[in-house]
């Protein structure tokens, strides 16, 4: 039989047990700390990554907004410049046609040239109507000159068509018009506008694309020209 432990031996065994328990506790505490540090680092990494992604997303959003704002500003400025250029071009064209009309007004001051012009447009109108009678409208101040032109036009009309035509002259066109005449058929159903204002308007419509090209160059954005 083993003998009972004395007090010193009991104390020694107790000390061993205490040391073992302390060692176990320290190791457990160390494991807990390591695990806690790992969990903390993992959570910290998640938070840092989430915040980084949020910052990147916010930066991308603001960058896109800035790029969009810049494009809008550039587009607005481009449109303003284009509109300003178009306005300047239209003003230039308007000035050209205004000058052309002023030259037409000067034409009527040369009586012989104006009478020849009146005869030509009256003959054209009579040939378009091919009616036995017609009325010629002119400015009041042109009535006497138009009556002379009508006589010559009647003779030329007969030479061309082989027909006689009765022509009356009335001075009811506006005095501020450029001149020329309107012809009305005898039955009042057909009107031929051979005023100089109308001739200029038709010329503007027909020649405007060509004039634009001559003045400003070919429009690269235009696909069709007919």
Write the layout of secondary structure elements.
Elements (H helix, E strand, L loop, with lengths): L6 H101 L3 H19 L3 E7 L3 H19 L4 E8 L6 E6 L5 E5 H21 L10
Parallel strand pairs: 1-2
Antiparallel strand pairs: 1-3, 3-4
Helix pairs in contact: 1-4, 2-3
Keywords: Ion transport, Transport
Protein name: V-type H+-transporting ATPase subunit E
Pfam families: vATP-synt_E
Features:
alpha+beta; 2 domains; 226 residues; ion transport; 12% strand; rod-shaped; V-type H+-transporting ATPase subunit E; hypothetical protein PF0899 fold
Low-pLDDT sequence parts: none
- Domain count, please report it: 2
Proper CATH architecture of the largest domain: 2-Layer Sandwich
Q: Helical element count?
A: 4
Major β-sheet annotation: 4 strands, mixed
Structural class estimated from helices and strands: alpha+beta
CATH topology assignment of the largest domain: hypothetical protein PF0899 fold
- Output the helix-strand order: HHEHEEEH
Oligomer: single chain
Shape: rod-shaped
Overall mean confidence score, pLDDT: 85
CATH H level, superfamily name of the largest domain: ATP synthase, E subunit, C-terminal
If strands are numbered along the chain, what order do they take across the biggest sheet?
2-1-3-4
The tally of strands reads: 4
Helix content: over 70%
Residue fraction in strands? 5-15%
Radius of gyration: 51 Å
Kindly report how far apart the N and C termini lie: 130 Å
């Amino acid at each position: 039989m083993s003998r009972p432990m004395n007090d010193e031996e009991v104390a020694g065994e107790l000390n061993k047990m205490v040391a073992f328990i302390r060692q176990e506790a320290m190791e457990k505490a160390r494991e807990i700390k390591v695990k806690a540090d790992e969990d903390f680092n993992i959570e910290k990494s998640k938070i840092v990554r989430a915040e980084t992604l949020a910052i990147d997303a916010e930066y991308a959003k603001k960058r896109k907004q800035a790029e969009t704002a810049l494009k809008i500003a550039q587009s607005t400025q481009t449109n303003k410049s284009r509109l300003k250029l178009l306005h300047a071009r239209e003003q230039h064209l308007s000035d050209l046609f205004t000058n052309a009309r002023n030259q037409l007004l000067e034409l009527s001051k040369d009586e012989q040239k104006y009478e020849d012009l009146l005869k030509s447009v009256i003959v054209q109108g009579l040939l378009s109507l091919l009616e036995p009678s017609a009325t010629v409208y002119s400015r009041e101040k042109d009535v006497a000159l138009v009556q002379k032109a009508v006589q010559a036009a009647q003779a030329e009309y007969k030479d061309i068509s082989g027909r006689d035509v009765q022509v009356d002259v009335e001075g009811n066109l506006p005095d501020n018009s450029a001149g020329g005449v309107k012809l009305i058929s005898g039955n009042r159903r057909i009107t031929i506008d051979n005023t100089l204002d109308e001739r200029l308007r038709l010329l503007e419509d027909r020649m405007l694309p060509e004039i634009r090209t001559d003045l400003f160059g070919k429009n690269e954005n235009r696909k069709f020209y007919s």
